[in-house]
Amino acid sequence: MATTVPPLPEPLDPGAPARTLTPRLGSSRLYLRRFARNRPALLGVALFVLLALFSVFGGVFTHFAYTDVDFTALTQPPSSTHYFGTNQGGNDVYAEAVHGLQRSLVIAVSVSVLTIVLAAVIGAGAAYFGGRVEKLTLMVIHFLLVVPSFLILALVSHHLAGDWRVLILVLTVFGWMSTARVIWSVSTSLRERDYVLAAEFMGVRPWRIVMRHIIPNLGSLLIVNLTLGVVATVLSETALSFLGFGVQPPDVSLGTMLADGSGTITSAPWLFGYPAALVVLLTVSMTLVGDGLRDAFDPTSTTGALGGRR
User: Fold this and answer.
1) Where is 12: in which H helix or E strand?
2) Which of 26, 103, 118, 160 could make a disulfide contact with 253, Cβ separation 3.0–4.6 Å?
3) For 6-20, what is each residue's pLDDT tens digit?
């Protein structure tokens, strides 16, 4: 009976790098493993999820609305009836905190998403088209960067009665420039890649190349800036509302609550303490998530390197 002799293995090249038996991970799984190794980032995710759940379902645990007035309890400390106490007008601070956090989150996430989309399209488009389009775009970006945007934001939002929808629009219009410049800088190297040149050779339309070949390859940069943009927007909205130029009564945000409680820190500290704690927790959570994403996408970081091991 004939036996089949298996082929001999190919001789090893002494100069070739040693092969590892570790299976290669997909890029998305590798990034996820790196992120999961970062405990502060996971803590940030947990905090943000809890805050989001509180803003959505926190009103279930009280029968007061943020507009309700209890004339029998004016500036009362926290109790079993009013969990976070009441303010000078008899409004329940717990109900205001739930609504204020929800309003601030809606503004922050909306502005961050719109800003990233606008910055990605303008920055990547300017880098790809080059020439006069690139020069004109950079001139506009540099001009808007030196304009005192905070004063314009304050004047426009105050003139339009502090509508939170207008605030989203205004924050987006004056918030995309620095991110667009970073995206333009990175995209100038991507426009010379082989897949872009191949798409041009095949006759793909320019904007289709920008949307399908350049912007998707900026995913890590966009995700990190999206996360950190939420922090920046929360601080901007809070500052504007604190100064009276953002969200206006009868609507409530964390900034308006801080403004109402700033004058009673010693006599009624709960009016300032609870919204301040929510702002701190929100900004810390998103900062931790943003740092974790940056480490996960950066293979040179210590956390990223540890996360890539099997």
Assistant:
1) none
2) 103
3) 444 454 454 444 444
What does the block give as tokens for 163? 């509508």
β-bridge partners, 86: 92
Cα separations in angstroms, 108 against 160, 178, 245 = 19, 17, 16
pLDDT of 165: 84
Among candidates 103, 115, 133, 212, which has minimal Cα distance to 171? 115
Alpha helices in the chain (DSSP H): 27-36, 39-57, 93-129, 131-146, 149-159, 164-173, 177-190, 194-201, 206-209, 219-242, 254-261, 270-297, 302-307
By C-alpha distance, which of 116, 133, 92 is closest to 227?
Answer: 116
Please state, in angstroms and rounded to a whole number, the distance separating the CA atoms of residues 134 and 120.
Answer: 14
Cα–Cα distance measured from residue 104 to residue 202, given in angstroms and rounded to the nearest whole number? 46
292: nearest Cα among 39, 29, 28: 39
Residue 305's pLDDT is: 47
Q: pTM value?
A: 0.81
